[in-house]
Each structure stands twice: as C-alpha cells, then as structure tokens.
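Let's sit down with a protein and look at its sequence and fold side by side. Once you have written the record down, we can walk along the chain together.
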Amino acid sequence: MKKIILFSLLILLPNFISAQSKKFIGVNPLGLFWGVLNIQYEFHYDKDNSIAIRGNFVGYSIGSFSNNALGAGASYRWYHDKKPIIGLFYGPSVDLLIWTAEEKNKTLPETHQSLFLGLGGEVGYKWNFNQFGVELFGGLRYYLGHISNLNFGGASLIAGVNLGYIW
C-alpha cells in the first residue's frame, strides 16, 4: 500500500509543481486613491500567452454628480520570456462598464445610466516572491459612451500595481 501511495505522489508531484505558476489572482490597492477597485484573475492559456479577466468598480463625485460604474474586462497577454504569468507582458485589452451618474440637484435630481466600452492595450511586469505576486502595469484605453445625450469618453492612461497570489 505504501508503494502505491509513494508511486501516486511521484506521478502527481510534477503536475503539482508545474501548476505552481499558471494562475494569479490580485487586487490593485493604488486604484482606491482614485475611486477605482479592480480584482483580476489570470490564467496560463498556451505556451507563451495568458488571459486576464477582471472585475471593475468605480465610484467618485465630480461637481454635482455622483458617479458609479460596475464592469468587467479582459486582456490577452503575450509574455516576452515565453513563460506566462511571470515576467514582461503586453497585449490588447477590453472593458465594458455600466455607468451611473446621479445628479445631486436638490430641486430636480436625475439619474443617468449608460454603457461604456474601453479598448486599448497594456504592458507590465510580474514578479513571483514565493507565490506572492507583484504586477506593475500601465497602458492606454479609449472609452466610448454617452450619458444623457452627451458624448463622454476618450483616451485614458491606466497604471497600477496588482498584489496577489500565484499558484
């Protein structure tokens, strides 16, 4: 019986070890300074690519408007060292946000809601410190959308640091 267990462990152990750097989950704490929260899950897709899927929350006020947005996004990443999840990466990204702007006018308050599409790209680098991942990233997104018949959006720089777990 001990030989069967040992043999099973020897077969499964290489699979467990090779799976150590194939997934990452992280959060961007720096975004909280600007009213943005991102939670991201990234997984190894093929020999030199990964896919990152994220949830987005935005909440801040400008003038008489309180803005909130919920959304999701994704990135397809090429890794320079052909070792997905760790190292230098770059690739396209897309985000879809449901945006709500609530006017704080006391006499006639209004709420406006719209869908925003963000298209762009990103570049970054991820380090693995004993399964603690640190990802520094930046990029450009172009947002398309309108609220209350007014066009909003345009180019926006993105930057952040995702901190999380690699396995």
